[in-house]
Amino acid sequence: MRDDAQRWDARHAGADDVGPLPPDLLRGREDLLPAGGRALDVACGRGAVSRWLAARGFAVDAVDVSPVGLSAVGPGVRTVLHDLDDGLPPSCTGPYDVVVCQRFRDPRLYPQLAASLAPGGLLVITVLSEVDEGPGPFRAPAGELRAAFAGLDVLVDVEQDGEAGLVARSAG
């Protein structure tokens, strides 16, 4: 955790503040978002998505390895300092009406992300991909997200330009 935390702390310390932003895959698709409830923002960084969800009335748990990143999240969001290499924190088991994970890939977490969804809950996930880019240590092979979340109702499935993303709903 220490090396990851230091690396991300340095990156976040030099970053400009970004206002609340929707997850990339929900831009223009905000109607897919439930009316409210609980939300989990995994690997939240500086919390732009967490703040966006909180502004829409969600009770948000924001998880990251970087204390510097979490310090930028702001009020109205519960922050949890945790190394995701150890799985989701015990205090963040759900059920959640929305689970967001942007640009953090650990296939070992996929079952936990799906299991943390409430009935009818929405998963929004993006990862780096080999599609249009080629292999790399942090890149998902083609079809990884669709296969990992095959038990969910897939609403959006995108793989292009080195990114893969999925928006899916649990059975409700």
Describe the structure.
- The chain is an alpha/beta fold and 172 residues long.
- The protein has one domain: Rossmann fold.
- Helix content is 21%, strand content 30%.
- It is built from 5 helices and 7 strands.
- A 7-stranded mixed β-sheet has the order 3-2-1-4-5-7-6.
- It starts with a helix and ends with a strand.
Strand-helix topology:
Elements (H helix, E strand, L loop, with lengths): L1 H12 L23 E6 L5 H8 L2 E7 L2 H5 L5 E5 L14 E7 L7 H6 L1 E12 L15 H5 L4 E8 L2 E7 L3
Parallel strand pairs: 1-2, 1-4, 2-3, 4-5
Antiparallel strand pairs: 5-7, 6-7
Counted by DSSP, the helix tally is: 5
> What is the CATH topology classification name?
Rossmann fold
> By CATH's scheme, which homologous superfamily applies?
Vaccinia Virus protein VP39
Q: Strand sequence of the main sheet, in spatial order?
A: 3-2-1-4-5-7-6
Properties at a glance:
172 residues, alpha/beta, Rossmann fold, seven-stranded mixed sheet, 5 helices, 7 strands, 21% helix, 30% strand
